[in-house]
Amino acid sequence: MNQSSLATVDQPKIKTSQGKGSKWLSHRSLDEWSLGAVLMIGVLALFICVVLPIYTLLSKSIENKAGEFVGLANFSHFFATPSLYNAINNSLLIAFLSTFIVTTLSFLTAYGISRTRIPFKGLFRTILVLPILAPSLLPAISLVYLFGNQGIIKELLMGESIYGPIGIVIGSCFWTFPHALMIMLTALANTDARLYESAEVLGASPIRTFFTVTFPAAKYGIISVAFVVFTLVITDFGVPKVIGGQFNVLATDIYKQVIGQQNFEMGATVSVILLLPAILTFITDRWLQRRQSALLTSKAVPWVAPKRLWLDRTFFALMVLVSVVIVGIILMAVYASLVTFWPYNLSLSFNNYNFDLMDGGGWDSYWNSIQMATFTALIGTGFIFFQSYLVAKLKGFQLLKWCFHLFAILPLAVPGLVLGLAYIFFFNAPNNPLNGIYGTMTILVVCTISHFYTVCHLTATTALKQIDAEFESVSASLKVPQIKTFWRVTLPVCMPAVLDIASYLFVNAMTTVSAVVFLYSYHTSLASVAVLNMDDAGDIAPAAAMAVMIMLTCMVARLVHWLLGNVLLKHTQSWRQK
Amino acid sequence: MSNQAYLELQNIHQMFGSHQALKDVSLNIQEGEFVCFLGPSGCGKTSLLRIIAGLDTPSSGELFQAGQNITQTPIKHRDFGIVFQSYALFPNLSVADNIAYGLVSKQFSQRDKQARVSELLATVGLSGSETKYPAQLSGGQQQRVALARALATSPGLLLLDEPLSALDARVRAHLRQEIKQLQEKLGVTTIMVTHDQEEALTMADKIVVMNQGVIEQIGTPQEVYTHPNTPFVAEFVGEMNFIEAKNSGDGLMQSGTLMLQCEPSSESMFGENVKLAIRPEDIRFNGHEDDKNSLNAQVLHLEFLGSRVRSLLQIDDHETPLIADISMNEMSGLNLAQGQSVRCQLPADRLHIFGGHA
C-alpha cells in the first residue's frame, strides 16, 4: 500500500522532467486541435483573399508598367494632371454635400421614429430602408427620367442640369440614406428616462434638454453616420457613372483608367488615394465604438415620448415627405421600365424586360446574379459564422485569433472598387497558383464574401458574445465534444443572427457593382453589371428594368428572411418565451 | 491508501501577465469532503477552482486526482462536474435534455437516460419539470437543474463556483442546506468557491481562507472562527475588534494606559508589538469590578439588529471604540441606554493575539 502511493507521487515528477515536449501538446484534446486546425485554415483563407490582394495593389501603385519600382512617381503624375487632380476636388465636394444632407435627414427621421408619437412608424421605417434593396444605379436612372433632358419634372431644376453634381448628390443621398438611418436608430434607441426626468425636475427647457441629454447620447452615432456616408459616397461609382456626365470623380476615374485605358498602375494609384478616407473612417469608427459602450448602463429605464402636438405634426409631415421622395424615385424606375418607348409611346408593356435582345448579358446575367448571391449567402454565412464561433469560443490559440480578427476587420476599410482592382492584380498574375479561378463564378463569390466580411463577422461575434461563456466548459466537463455543443446549442441559439448574415450577404451580392465590375467575364456577367452596361449603351429603360428585377429579388429575399425569422423560428424557438 | 488525499495540489503558482494570482498554493482534500474556498474577490479562489477544473493551466505546480497527475490533462479526460455562477444552462434545451446532455456520449439507452433524469430530478426536488425550458424556471430551480446536470455522470469531484450568489437571501439559505444534505447523501468530494463567510461556515467540512493569492488558513469552520491564524482571517470570517498593544510578558499586554491579561500560553513568540482581537459577542457585561480585564466604558451608540443589540463602546483611557453584541435576553437585564456608563469585561480566554504590526 505504502509503496504504491509513493510510486504514484514520484512518477509524475520524472515525467515532467523528461517530457517537456509533449507537455504543451497534451493539455488540449484531439477535438480542440482539429478545431484549431479549422481556425488556421480560416486565417489562411482571409490572408489569401484579403491581405495578399491588397498588398499586391499597394505594391502596384509604386511600380511602372514594366513592374519596376518607381517610388511615388505615379502619385506625382496623378497630382500633376489637372483633370485627374480635379477629380479629388469633385469627389470631396460631392461627399461633403451628401454627408451633410444624409446626416441631417437621417437624424431627423430616426428621431421621428424613436422619439415622437407619430402614427405608422412601422410603415415609415419599412419605406425608409427600401433603397437598400436596390442597386445604387437605380436612383440615378430614376433621376434621368425625372429630371433628365426628357424628364417629366425637369422644370423643377430651373434650368440646371441633373447630369453632374446635383444628380450625383441626390442619387448618393438616396442609396446611402438607409445605412445612415440604421446607425442613427441604434444611436437613438438607447434612452434613459431617468435623465429626462432629472432634466425636467431641474427645470430645463425642452431645447436645453435636447442639447444636454438627447444630443450627447446620440453624438457618437452622428459622427459615425457622417464618416460612413462620406466613405460610401466617395467610393461609389455607380451613381456618378450613370448621371455624372462630364463631372469627374475619383471612383469613375479608377474605372476609366482600368476599363477604358487599361492603365492599371494609375488605377492602383487612384485606389490608394481612395483608401485614405476609408481608412480614416475605419479608425474613427473603431475609436467611437470603444467610447460608446461606456455610455450605457444596464439600469437604464426606457423613455416614453410624451405627447407634443406640434412637434409630432411637424415630424409626421417630414416623414411623409421623405417617404414620398423615396417611393417616388422607386416608382419612377418601375414605371420607366414598363413604358414601351419613352417619351413617345407611353403604353405599358414588358418589352424592356426582353433582356436577351440587349447588350449586357441578357437574362443569363440575372440568373448568374441569383446563383452568385445564393452561393455567397450559403458559403459566406457558413464560413463566417463558424470562424467567428472559433474565434469567440475556442480555448487558447491567442495569436491565431488575433490575426483572424485583424484580417476580418480589414475589409471594412477597403472600398469595393479597390478590392476588385486588387483581385485583378493578385489573381490574374500568371504565377499565382490560384490563377485558375480568374474569370469564374468562384472569384465573384470569394470577392463578394471578402468585400462584405466585416459586418457579418461583427454581427456573428456580437451574437456569440451574448451567450453564456461557460457553455464550452460545461460540455467539456460532461465529456461532450465541443462541435456537438456548437450544433445542438450555439447554432440554434444564434439562428436569428445567422439569418441576418445570410440575408445581408444575399442582398449585397445582388446589388453590388463596385468590386465585381472588374472581375466578371463573358460567361459570368451579373445583373447589377448589366444595368451599368445597358445604361452605358444607351438602353436606359432596360437598365431600369434590370434594376427593378434586382430590387424585387431582394424584396423576396427579405420576405423569405422575415418568414423564416417570424414563422419558422417562432415555432422552433419556443424556449425564448417565458 | 486511506491517508492519501483524493485531490492534491502541490506548489501551484499562477501568473496573469505580471499579476500573480496564486502564490505557492498547496492543499490536500480527502475523499468525500466538502471544502469551501473562501475569500474576497480577487483573492485567487476562482483561479484555483479553474485550475482544478482544467479551464486554466497553472504557471507552475502540480495537481493530482486519485493518485493521477492531472496538471496537463484536458478537461475532457478529467473526472468532475461543475456548476457555474451563471448556471450555464442551455437555453434551447428542455430540463431533461440539459440533464441528459452528458449521458449521450456514454452510450446510455434512451430508457436508461430517462430513468437517470427522473432520478436526478427527484434528488434535487424538481420531479415533473422534464419538459420545461430554463427560462420558465426560477433562479433557484435553474440552480438545481445545473446541479443535477453536473451530477448526472456521477463525477468523483463536484465543483461549485459561487453557486448561490445570484439568488435572493431566502432561497439561498434554503438551497444551502439542500446542497449540503445532497452532498452528504452522495458522498461526492465537493469544492465550493464563495465570498460569503456564512455560506462557508454552514456548509463546509473544511474551509480554505484565501487572500491575495495565498492560503491564509485551512481548518474546520469552528477552528477558523474560534482560532483564526491571522488578523485577515479574524476579520474576514465573522467580525472582530482590534487593539494595538505591547507585549509586557507573562500574558500582560499594554495598550496605552490599559493593561490587559491574556492567557499566558506562548506570548513570547509574538514579539514586542502585538495586535489583540476580540469578537463583539465575546465582550461581557455581567462581571464584577475585580474580574480580570474589567473596564469602564461609555455607550456611544446602540443599534437594534432584531435578535441582538449592537453597541459601540468607548473604553476609558482608550482611543478606538469597540463593538459589542448583546443578545436580547441579556439586554433585558442590562437596560442599556445611549450615553450611559457601563462595566464590561474582555475575557482573557477570548482575546486573540497576533504578532507584529500586521
TrEMBL record, chain A:
This is Iron(III) transport system permease protein. Residues 1-21 are annotated as: Disordered. Residues 88-285, 366-561 form the ABC transmembrane type-1 domain. The chain crosses the membrane at residues 33-57, 69-88, 94-114, 126-148, 168-189, 210-234, 266-283, 315-342, 370-392, 404-425, 437-456, 501-523, 543-569. GO terms for cellular component: plasma membrane. It comes from the Bacteria. CDD domains: TM_PBP2. InterPro entries: AminoethylPonate_ABC_perm-1, MetI-like, MetI-like_sf. Residues 1-20 have a biased composition (Polar residues). It comes from Marinomonas aquiplantarum. One of its GO terms (biological process) is transmembrane transport. It holds the Pfam family BPD_transp_1.
TrEMBL record, chain B:
InterPro entries: AAA+_ATPase, ABC_SmlMolc_Importer, ABC_transporter-like_ATP-bd, ABC_transporter-like_CS, AminoethylPonate_ABC_PhnT2, Mo/tungstate-bd_C_term_dom, NA-bd_OB-fold, P-loop_NTPase. Keywords: ATP-binding, Cell inner membrane, Cell membrane, Membrane, Nucleotide-binding, Translocase, Transport. PROSITE patterns: ABC_TRANSPORTER_1 (PS00211), ABC_TRANSPORTER_2 (PS50893). Residues 7-237 form the ABC transporter domain. GO terms for molecular function: ATP binding; ATP hydrolysis activity; transmembrane transporter activity. Signal peptide: none annotated. Coiled coil: none annotated. GO terms for biological process: quaternary ammonium group transport. One of its GO terms (cellular component) is ATP-binding cassette (ABC) transporter complex. The keyword Cell membrane applies. It comes from the Bacteria. This is Iron(III) transport system ATP-binding protein. The lineage of its organism: Bacteria, Pseudomonadati, Pseudomonadota, Gammaproteobacteria, Oceanospirillales.
